[in-house]
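Sequence, structure tokens passed on for absentees:
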Amino acid sequence: MTQPMFSFMSSSLVMTAIIAMTFAIHTFFPKTFSAKIRYRMWIVVLLWLIIPIRPSIGNGIISLPFFTQAESTTTLAGAEEEQIVLDIPLADVVNDPVAQENTAFLSLSFTNILLIVWGVGAIITFSYHLLHYIQFTRTINRWGFLEEDEQVLTTFHKVQAKMGLQNKKIRLMTCSVVSTSLLTGFLRPVVILPEKNFELEELELIFRHEFIHYKRHDLFIKLLSLLAVSIHWFNPFVYLMSAALQAEGEASCDQDVIQHTGEKNRHFYAEIIIGMIGGKHLQKTFLSTNFYGGKKGIKKRLESIIDASNHISSLSYFALAFVIVITIFSGSVFASPLQAATRNSEVDYFRQRIEMEEAQEIALSIIGGGTIQEIETSYANETPIFNVTVLYDHHLYAVTLHATTGEIIGLQTGNFDENLPFNEATEEETREISQSPISSNTAIQIAKNLVSGDLVEVDRDVERGRAVWYVAIRSGSTVHEIYIDMETGEIVLHETYNDN
């Protein structure tokens, strides 16, 4: 799994835990935190569901494994991407159209498929809700009309002026297909009333509720909520978070409306909400407020309205600060593959993937022989790699291998005698290094089946008039020199000498 996809999936997983934690706080301390504090907590969670960057401290608490077996090869700067099956001569891959087609198909890795599925799901989710909103506004415009009642308009503008919004162009409409007041419209905001006979005192509270939504930019919060749901469409906890955000948004508006009022006004305001129950109504949309908000949670909302007790401010703000801190630094929970690598020594890390000896064998099999000059471990774009330098026929070859899969990332050549800098290997040079029916890698395996030990050298040679692979293997103090026919794989000669 590539680093960006790893970061996204681990972020969604951590945010799921934070959402569950926030629900737990609200459940176990139902009367400790005001609706306004709960709303702000959910806004913090919402923002970090969208923001891709996560500050991190240290190397993470939990390490997740690599998912690189199906991963496409990462290329170095200036190196062409290649995917090579080492048991097949490279020339066969270059010349065989079927092999080329299979290689192209295999490059569609698990990560790419996962990315496509996620992207399609995100587009479908966002498009569905956007189309629903467009349908919603068309229905409102078809069945609604601009309010013309002078008393209603006077009350509307009076509340608007009291809240410092007299210079804002906010329209007032009445619509027969809604049963609750609401605010909608990003560019042309409009307050919509159901077709009911409201008292002026009721209208004043309703208008105040919707203007609070406008001043707090709650429509844009709802747009961010839609983005979060679309991005994390596969995560059911995000849908629960979005629903809680909408409910607490309405409840926090209630709190502002009835602030510093007596019990009588609280009961009166609760009766307005109860009066919205029933009747015709459009299906709710993400991109509008909803004064009534639905039957779910209405009991809790009404209890909050009637409750005149003061909440513990110090504990409330402490909880809010706690959610902010733990959310911001949620990136420190999971270690990325690169961070996990640095926890252990570099050598130990690479030993968990392919051994250095195996990397040497792969490099020699790619070049077709030679001796190892140098091998080192490093990173390229956060990908762990082996850099192997091979000397063969007065030429130096720099082979870059993926340290997890052993796949070739880059191949460069340089002249050993003239000490020139490395250049990218041409296609012809690449083809020439693996032309024999028996590849050097196969020859190594034949030799190791005969003698166990460490590979010393692989080279082309001629023995008894036959083109052979010369394979040297050290077993203790004894070096075995094995000559293997390049055409048939037959062992032509096997000699030993003591290297003490």
Q: What stands out?
A: DSSP finds 17 helices and 15 strands in the chain. The radius of gyration is 35 Å. The chain has three domains: 3-66+111-332, 74-95+354-435, 440-498.
